[in-house]
């Protein structure tokens, strides 16, 4: 039997399947032959099925049935005559024989009958071959539910087993049809069939190996919501996904701030899932996941309670968050750095700097360590409030603790310092954080270059420009605008034109501000001809122009 399957597997993969729009057997006309007559169709079906029960020799079968013209109706009736487990080999032989020797293209419904027969006979290897063949040849069908619908439609006819649907989803995973496999699993659940954990593990493993991390977490969340709880294989796959995303250490750090102790892999995985869902704003889903996890001890109470408080803060309900927090303390839960930083963030977002500073002091008095995000919130809030001294103080404390601000936080502080004319201090801080590992972006340099440009310090502007080039930051229009405007203000029109040519060489569009700076510089130098040429170019480009006297 195995030899027969191997011989025909390659053929089935390449065969096309004509799929009927419904589960009903396609109505066809059987052409009368010397052997079988339409009026005696039941006898004909019995004759063919009995023949295949007696012999498996294809040459004998082909000679005996040489005048038979197969139809979908006839094929399906013969298969049903051979549906008992003891006749599964005969049914499979008939299915392969008709496809190979008669060049018969089986319908999806015929495939499904054959699949059910071999599954019922526990010939799972044969079933996998048939399912994969059916999936490959039905890919062009307009609906992804074509095969599963046919399997459901023929399920009771053959008295099959739910194992068939696990094999189907596992086949999707093997063929890397992950999204289709997941949608089909949901479809089956809606029709009362609950897949085995091994089927979900197959999907997760395939997705993780293929780098489809978004789908990995989507499927895992679905499993938890539907009480399909993970085993060791599931957890190992999910940890692999975290590693691939580069987020494992991030989640471990989060747990250190909440729990303060080493956590098991299952807790790490579930913490990431819930936090991810909450951060994406799917609050109700996050709370549902927490409920399911707590019921099965898949997450620690401390973590769950902290996430509930965090959710209240994320929704903007500060008073409710304090109530939940106080209730936590009454239940002997300890305060933690994550919650204090969350409250500090909430106060900072409301512009309540004093309250945020008070929380920081209380946090330190309790022996809790502020971390990078704690200081990021305070630095940004103090800068926006115009309290630059406080912002710098938090920045310096952060550096002393061996922490580095986020790029956006550092940019905000640099912006504030540059606006009050303290670009020198801001540039000094840039040197400091570069040594600590911060990677600045274009915004960082734009703030500094703009400030130096306003101060007429064109050499500092050029130095920052070449520093950007050295760091492969690829200066864009804002940087060139600042640079060219600064050169024009200093009367260095030739150098300004040099960077204009560099812009054009990099296909960076010229802005009205650049053109006006150059025209002004030309006029200041008495070069009305070049000013007029650039003015005309602006007109040709449809740009707003300044008046040239």
Describe what you observe in this structure.
The protein is mainly alpha-helical and 549 residues long. Among the domains are: 1-23 and 34-155, no CATH class; 335-421, Serine Threonine Protein Phosphatase 5, Tetratricopeptide repeat (Alpha Horseshoe). 70% of the residues lie in helices and 0% in strands. It has 30 helices and no strands. Helix 15 (265-279) packs parallel to helix 17 (301-314), helix 19 (337-349) packs parallel to helix 21 (372-384) and helix 25 (442-454) packs antiparallel against helix 26 (458-470). The chain is flat, with a radius of gyration of 36 Å. The model is unreliable at 1-39 (pLDDT under 50).
**Structural class, from secondary structure content?**
mainly alpha
Count of extended strands: 0
Shape: flat
Q: Largest sheet at a glance?
A: none
Element pattern in H and E? HHHHHHHHHHHHHHHHHHHHHHHHHHHHHH
Mean pLDDT level: 90
Taking pLDDT < 50 over at least 5 consecutive residues as the criterion, the unreliable ranges are: 1-39
Report how far apart the termini are: 96 Å
Query: Proportion of β residues?
Result: under 5%
Q: Helical residue percent?
A: 55-70%
Number of helices: 30
Write down the Rg: 36 Å
């Amino acid at each position: 039997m195995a030899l027969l399957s191997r011989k025909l597997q390659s053929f089935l993969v390449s065969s096309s399947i004509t799929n009927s729009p419904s589960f009903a057997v396609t109505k066809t006309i059987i052409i009368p032959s010397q052997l079988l007559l339409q009026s005696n169709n039941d006898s004909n079906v019995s004759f063919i099925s009995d023949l295949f029960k007696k012999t498996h020799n294809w040459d004998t079968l082909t000679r005996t049935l040489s005048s038979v013209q197969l139809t979908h109706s006839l094929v399906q009736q013969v298969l049903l005559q051979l549906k008992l487990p003891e006749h599964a080999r005969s049914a499979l032989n008939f299915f392969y024989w008709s496809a190979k020797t008669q060049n018969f293209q089986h319908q999806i419904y015929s495939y499904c009958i054959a699949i059910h027969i071999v599954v019922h006979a526990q010939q799972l290897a044969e079933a996998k071959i048939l399912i994969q063949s059916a999936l490959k040849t039905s890919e062009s069908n307009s609906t992804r539910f074509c095969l599963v619908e046919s399997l459901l439609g023929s399920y009771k006819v053959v008295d099959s087993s739910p194992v068939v649907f696990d094999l189907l989803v596992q086949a999707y995973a093997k063929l890397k049809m992950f999204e289709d496999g997941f949608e089909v699993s949901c479809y089956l659940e809606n029709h009362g069939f609950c897949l085995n954990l091994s089927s979900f593990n197959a999907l997760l493993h395939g997705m993780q190996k293929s780098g489809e991390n978004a789908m990995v977490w989507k499927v895992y969340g679905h499993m938890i919501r539907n009480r399909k709880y993970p085993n060791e294989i599931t957890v190992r796959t999910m940890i692999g996904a975290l590693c691939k995303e580069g987020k494992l250490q991030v989640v471990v750090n989060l747990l250190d701030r909440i729990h303060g102790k080493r956590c098991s892999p299952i807790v790490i995985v579930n913490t990431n899932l819930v936090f991810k869902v909450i951060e994406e704003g799917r609050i109700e889903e996050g709370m549902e996941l927490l409920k399911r996890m707590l019921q099965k001890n898949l997450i620690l109470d401390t973590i769950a309670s902290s996430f509930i408080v965090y959710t209240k803060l994320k929704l903007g309900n500060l008073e409710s968050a304090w109530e939940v927090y106080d209730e936590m303390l009454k239940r002997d839960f300890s305060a933690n750095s994550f919650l204090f930083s969350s409250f500090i963030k909430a106060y900072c977002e409301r512009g309540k700097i004093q309250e945020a500073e008070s929380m920081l002091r209380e946090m330190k008095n309790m022996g809790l360590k502020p971390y990078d995000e704690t200081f990021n919130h305070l630095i940004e809030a103090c800068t926006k409030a115009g309290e630059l001294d406080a912002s710098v103080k938090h920045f310096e404390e952060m550096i002393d603790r061996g922490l580095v601000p986020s790029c956006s936080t550092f940019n905000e502080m640099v912006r504030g310092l540059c606006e009050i004319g303290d670009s020198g201090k801001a540039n000094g801080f840039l040197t400091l954080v570069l040594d600590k590992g911060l990677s600045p972006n274009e915004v960082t340099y734009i703030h500094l270059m703009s400030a130096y440009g306003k101060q007429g310090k064109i050499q500092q502007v050029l130095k920052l420009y070449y520093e950007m080039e050295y760091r492969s930051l690829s200066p864009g229009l804002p940087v060139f605008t600042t640079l060219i405007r600064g050169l024009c203000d200093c009367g260095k029109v030739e150098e300004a034109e040099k960077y204009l040519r560099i812009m054009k060489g990099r296909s960076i569009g010229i802005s009205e501000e650049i053109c006006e700076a150059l025209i002004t510089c030309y006029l200041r130098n008495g070069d009305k001809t070049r000013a007029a040429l650039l003015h005309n170019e602006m007109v040709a480009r449809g740009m707003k122009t300044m008046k040239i006297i």
